Amino acid sequence: MTRPSSSLLRQPLDKPLLYDSSDRVVPLGDAIGAGGEGTVFEINGHPKLLAKVYHKASLNDQHDHKLRTLVSLGAEDLLGIAAWPRALLFDPRTKAVRGLMMDRVADAHPLHELYGTTSRSRTFPQAQWGHLVLAARNLAAAFGTLHERGVLVGDVNQGNLLVDGKMCVRMIDCDSFQVTHRKHVFRCPVGTPHFTPPELQSMKLADVDRTAEHDAFGLAILIFHLLFVGRHPFAGRYQGPGDMTIEKAIAERRFAFSHNRSDTQVDPPPASLRLDDLPHGIGELFERAFRADIDNPVRPKPEEWIGELETLIKQRRVCPIEEAHVYSSASLDCPWCRIENAGGPSFFLNIGAVDGTSESRLAALDAQLEKIEAIQFPELPTLTLKLPRLPMAMQSAKAPQRGTADWLAAGWIGSAALCLGGAFCGPVLAAGAVGSLATAGMLAFGKAGKQRRQTLVEADAALNERLRKLAAGSSKISADHGKRLEEYDAYAASVSTGIQRYKADTEDMETILRQLRIEQKEDFLRGYSIRDYRRRIPGLTPQMVAMLDSYSIDSAYHVQKILLTGVPGLTPAVMLELQAWRTRVEEKFEYKAEEGITERELNADKQEATRRFKIALARKILQGAKRMRSMAFAAQGQLDQAIAVYKRHVEQWRGLAHQRQQTQAARAPWERKLNLNLATVIGAGVGAPLVGALLWLIVR
Amino acid sequence: MDQLSAESAFSSVEFAENPEPRVPCVLVVDTSTSMQGLKLIELSKGLATYRDQLMKDALASKRVEVGIITFGGRVQRRTKFVTAPDFVPPQLDAIGGTPMGEAILEAITMVEERKQAYRENGIAYYRPWIFLITDGEPNDHWKPVCSRVEAGEKDKSFCFFAVGVEGANMEVLSEISVRKPLWLMGLKFHELFTWLSNSQQAVSQSSPGEEVALQDPTSGPTGWAAI
After folding, report:
1. Residue B170: CA atoms inside 13 Å, Cβ hemisphere, count?
2. Are residues A268 and A130 in the same domain?
3. Deepest in the core among A351, A568, B132, B216, taking most CB within 10 A?
């Protein structure tokens, strides 16, 4: 282990004289680090190489063999991902192995500099969450390469990995890795408890042959650190009694972010990403890695991580409000905004646009707020929604084809005329009567006449039915639109309150905070329905609840003396009990600094607190504006769709109506009037001779 | 009305931003009138050294947290727990008597509160350090403190170190401290704080719970203590 320790650096180090395998002197330069095992030197004339020299003048056989094996394993793929030992260093006199030479990993930093928020902004200012995912992918790839060669890291920890600006990962301290040579296992004698799998916790690691499953656990922990910006998967809020150390949590498989909370008894820490913010597949891999069966663990292999992480990289999304927020498309809203809005830290900042100070961030948000154009909620096209009317019957140009019914009707007219004329001549009257009865009868009961009447009745019935449906459709469209408008208006009102507060001066902040607190409390009280808590309020009968309900008193919020006194049937004792209940509910209320600041912070630094408040608020407003825009957009879409359907139905109706009118126009006008319905036809058929007969009687 | 605790209101940001495991250390510093002059000047310089040393180590600057309690006339929490980048050594002024007993109890309380905050925020931690620096003897009830320190050391709630500066009553210190109290040679505060920072760096690079052998402060060129 060669973790650099500054305390040892200050001690003078004598540089030993060392040879390489072909007895040439290796000129050691400055010492750049030292640890318990040895010292790392630069090599003069070879800026890309380093030499590690062990403190011990002679290594034991085991160690000697291990180093020789390591050097013999050195292949291009390993040299690409690790500072793999390239050659050995020998004591010129005893020819014993004293150290080794390896590549210097330049321009790279320990992994924690990438996942730590403060160090990231300094060391990797351009890195967003997508970069961390990429580093995790490359980390898995490095493990994959080692495992392919039968090499195990053994002591996985955040210290023996370096990551460069391109997010490529390189391993250092490779001499502690576990390697196998001709079935002989050269063990890794050390471990880091926070990265050690449950089955190895509290075991003497020098006596353990590590397996790929053990490495898989450490790999998953490292990936978790990257994806969850520094959080350890087993560090959460333990709900049970006593202290829960990480080692114990690992041994008991208490994965703090697990979905299976009843098993783990641990809540995830506040202001952190959640497992649901990641694609389901990655959540599954974490659950498998950290909740694996101890006796027969099957943890995710590097290839599985690579697959899922590459998908995540491809499906990442950029927050529309804060460009610096990159997140998985699996989550609906930006989780970083959610964390910040709840008063959490800003894990990622847009370095290009802002320098991280609250002033510059506020200025950037100001500019964005200005850009919120007036959002138009679509209007209801009332004209389009009017019900259609019957079109005028168009006279067709060519003479219509007269049918049997038309001739029969014409015959009846003739007969009727005969009847009237026959008042002076009996036989004519008789002939007219016969003619009238015959033609009317044939029209009334004959196929042709019947069909004409039926077509009209059917057409009218169909048209009326459709018209009814159209009316219903039209009013549904209006109602739906009204509901959406109402929702939109309510939302717009809250956004505009936000904008007012945003524009408020620093002096008004106290008032605003007080308002926020009151609003939050009122919402909280509204959440306690009297009906649900009836049994907790002594003396409150269901009848009283119903009575209270009818007076719109249904939650703890409404339990106010002035409101209660008006309600009949409420005894003074119950009234007091209700008020006592409200007090109990009130005591449970805990103010959450929704916009991230409290009065206390306001008192500490008014300017800064106001700016932070405004940043949170501006983000909320922008989110609100985005939501308003999408509400308007959705409303327009739904309206357009509904109107299109409505229009299609109107067109169909018009088609039918036109057809009806055309059919009617094709009938001879006299036939249309005579053959209106059965009664008319029969009435006319019988009526004409009767009138004729009456006239005959009068005249005679 | 609803109460909002300062810990839960402010610390979640700090811990979310830096979820690294913590090495908390309370410095319990004597600022009674006897410390006036060179002693306090050197001690203040030592605090700056301490900060600078911690800053040199990327991991220690994220993990080691310093809190300061002073006792001179009355017991005061001068610095809440902060990591090196946020640590501004306070201005120390000598005044009043030596309420050492109360100061130690306050340090134990401070450590317990901090541990609670760690637990609430899902932060792993190493055994806290309580580091007492004095040049006198307590002028309050210090006897009950002995059992508290002993109990704390026994169940590994914290490590208690006592450093006596010229004038300190070492007998009382060895009664209070389970570990042997250290006697500061001259005014080697610089060396003392360098040692403190190095030891904590070593601890911060181990894993919580692991025992780390500390460098012997009484020997070598960087030694600063006598027993």
Report:
1. 13
2. yes
3. B132
CA dihedral A376, A377, A380, A381 (to 10 degrees): 30
**Residue of A343, A357, A365 lying closest to A121 (CA atoms):** A357
Where would I find the H helices in A504-560? Answer: 509-526, 542-550
Residue A128 lies in a domain: yes
Which candidate, A249, A23, A223, A251, places its Cα nearest to that of A139? A223
Question: How far apart are the C-alpha atoms of A690 and A685, rounded to whole Å?
Answer: 9
Instruction: Tell me what percent of chain B is helix, strand and coil, each rounded to the nearest 5.
Output: 45, 20, 35
User: Quick check: A618 and A366 in contact, CB under 8 A?
Assistant: yes
Kindly state the helix (H) or strand (E) to which residue B159 belongs, with its residue range: strand B159-164
CA distance A76 to chain B (A): 31
> What is the amino acid identity at position B80?
K
What DSSP line would sit under A63-106, residue for residue?
Answer: HHHHHHHHHHH--HHHHHHB--EEEEEE-TTT--EEEEEEE--T
pTM for this predicted structure: 0.63
Question: Amino acid identity of A220?
Answer: A
Q: Which three-class secondary structure state does DSSP give residue A663?
A: helix
User: Which structural domain range is residue A243 located in?
Assistant: 110-341
The torsion defined by the Cα of A192, A195, A198 and A202, in degrees rounded to 10, comes to 10
Q: For chain A, what is the domain count?
A: 4
Specify if A351 maps to a domain: no
All structural domains of chain B, each given as residue ranges with its CATH number in brackets, are 20-206 (3.40.50.410)
Contact B56 A344 (CB under 8 A): no
Tell me: the pLDDT tens digits for B40-88?
999 999 999 999 988 888 888 899 999 999 999 899 999 889 999 889 8
Which among A205, A183, A175, A181 is positioned nearest to A192, based on CA atoms? A205
Q: Which two tokens stand for residue B11?
A: 């610390």
Which residue type occupies A177? Answer: F
One domain, residues A281 and A193: yes
Beta-carbon neighbour count of residue A456 at 10 Å? 18
At A421 the pLDDT is 78
Assigned domain for A593 exists: yes
Regarding whether A460 and A416 lie in a shared domain, the answer is: yes
Residue A94 tokens read as 């005893």
Residues A11 and A36 grouped into a single domain: yes
Q: Please, which residues have CB within 8 angstroms of residue A533's CB and are 6 or more apart in sequence? A: A556, A581
Low-confidence ranges of chain B (pLDDT < 70): 1-12, 206-213, 220-222, 227
Give the residue carrying structure tokens 């829960």: A244
Lookup result for tokens 């959460």: A236
Alpha carbon of B220: minimum distance to chain A alpha carbons (Å): 10
Residue among B59, B61, B64, B190 with most chain A CBs within 10 A, to mutate:
B59
Using the 3D structure, point to which of A104, A133, A151 is the last residue of a domain: A104
Tokens of A135: 């580093």
If you ran DSSP here, which 8-state letter would residue A313 be given?
H
Give the type of residue at A337: C
Q: How far is CA A148 from the centre of its chain?
A: 38
Q: What is the CATH number of the domain that holds A86?
A: 3.30.200.20
Q: Which residues of B, range 73-132, sit inside 8 Å of A by Cβ?
A: 85, 119-124
CA–CA dist A200, A445 (Å, integer): 101
Q: Name residue A630's amino acid.
A: S
Rounded to whole angstroms, the Cα distance separating A138 from A443 reads 92
Same-domain status, A494 and A627: yes
For A564, other C-beta atoms within 10 Å of its C-beta total 19
Residues of chain A below pLDDT 70: 1-14, 36, 343, 350-361, 364-365, 371-374, 393-400, 506, 593-605
Question: Strand ranges (DSSP E) for A306-410?
Answer: 316-318, 326-328
| A389 within some domain | no
Q: What is the pLDDT of residue A398?
A: 63
Q: What is the CATH number of the domain that holds A297?
A: 1.10.510.10
